[in-house]
């Protein structure tokens, strides 16, 4: 074979290789810089975030706010799962029940109840998507995207709406956590393998000419197996229309007992209804004042689509403030693993001085981070307050109820600066009644469809990152962690 054989154009030329001369030059340049040598000494012996942190900035923060909801709750803990979206939604909804029954601040609605139904519905949704795409190439981008993570822990607000409308809610005392609901790694791994197996089986049947009835019969048999697996892991599940007894003791030690069904409990006692809310996003890649959805994203077949209204970031602040001014907490979605300090519970884009330590600083805009895959929604939390100085229109900081337990931040509450809001917040959920009238048609129009892999769908597909970051230096895929690693996202 000739030495001059022409190489493929997608192979870098040999002339692009790093040379010994380049390495020697860079090493000499580094050693000649005393600031870099000092940085190396510090970083090789300390947590890099402690070295990067600007002490003047971290010392300037306090957890006092000019506006807060009337009653705050004890912070919840999603453990080793990517259920942040469920926790955040139920944290919004529990306040009305606590007020109505004068309950203590540790009252919770059952996250594991919705988690079970979400797992079951997502498996069915995935298999239906497999049937819808049976004629598309298996090695194409769409099928590979669907197969990559057929059942994750993550989700979106409209997926909460679907679950609550179909299954209702129950108090946590009625359906408490199981080992699996607090650590979903094993069940996710097992069902991921089974769902991929089912997908190949259904596609094989379709390729041999199986009729729709036979395909759906096979799918029903598969879902029966899924139900058995989930029931083993989560326990005996209350049915949406079956009665349960709820016993409670209020803050004055008064005892009360009531009988409800999950659907009735949601209908009669939850004042903040999921379907009364609308998701507003900030996506600088796409035109504002339009509605968007993400292809193949959802959990309940026949349920609501995931719908967003895209607005400038200042509008998201205005709607979040209006929600809090009305005494209600505000659900939101962010890229939580950027410029944050876990133990202090601080989210601030100016907290770390990269240039001082490295001589290099991050340089991308929010739009560039989205386009390059550097940023996406990775976690859902809840605003419970903000601080605004006299004479100013925009808050300088926001109070955040997280779901990573009460040992971080201010007893589990985090602080988000306005600058961080600009860069890493992507979504707020507010009551439809707050929307400007000219936006109301966007609630029912035909949305622009984004591709299945678009970052605006990431909160519902990355429930795997959350746990790894919480334990190690953080909390939603190699970013919320990998639910299928040990610690997961959204």
UniProtKB/TrEMBL annotation:
<keyword id="KW-0645">Protease</keyword>
<dbReference type="InterPro" id="IPR000169">
    <property type="entry name" value="Pept_cys_AS"/>
</dbReference>
<feature type="active site">
    <location>
        <position position="84"/>
    </location>
</feature>
<feature type="active site">
    <location>
        <position position="379"/>
    </location>
</feature>
<dbReference type="GO" id="GO:0043418">
    <property type="term" value="P:homocysteine catabolic process"/>
</dbReference>
<dbReference type="InterPro" id="IPR038765">
    <property type="entry name" value="Papain-like_cys_pep_sf"/>
</dbReference>
<dbReference type="GO" id="GO:0009636">
    <property type="term" value="P:response to toxic substance"/>
</dbReference>
<dbReference type="GO" id="GO:0070005">
    <property type="term" value="F:cysteine-type aminopeptidase activity"/>
</dbReference>
<comment type="similarity">
    <text>Belongs to the peptidase C1 family.</text>
</comment>
<feature type="region of interest" description="Disordered">
    <location>
        <begin position="462"/>
        <end position="490"/>
    </location>
</feature>
<feature type="compositionally biased region" description="Basic and acidic residues">
    <location>
        <begin position="477"/>
        <end position="490"/>
    </location>
</feature>
<dbReference type="GO" id="GO:0006508">
    <property type="term" value="P:proteolysis"/>
</dbReference>
<feature type="active site">
    <location>
        <position position="402"/>
    </location>
</feature>
<dbReference type="InterPro" id="IPR004134">
    <property type="entry name" value="Peptidase_C1B"/>
</dbReference>
<keyword id="KW-0788">Thiol protease</keyword>
<protein>
    <recommendedName>
        <fullName>bleomycin hydrolase</fullName>
        <ecNumber>3.4.22.40</ecNumber>
    </recommendedName>
</protein>
<keyword id="KW-0378">Hydrolase</keyword>
<dbReference type="GO" id="GO:0005737">
    <property type="term" value="C:cytoplasm"/>
</dbReference>
<dbReference type="Pfam" id="PF03051">
    <property type="entry name" value="Peptidase_C1_2"/>
</dbReference>
<dbReference type="GO" id="GO:0004197">
    <property type="term" value="F:cysteine-type endopeptidase activity"/>
</dbReference>
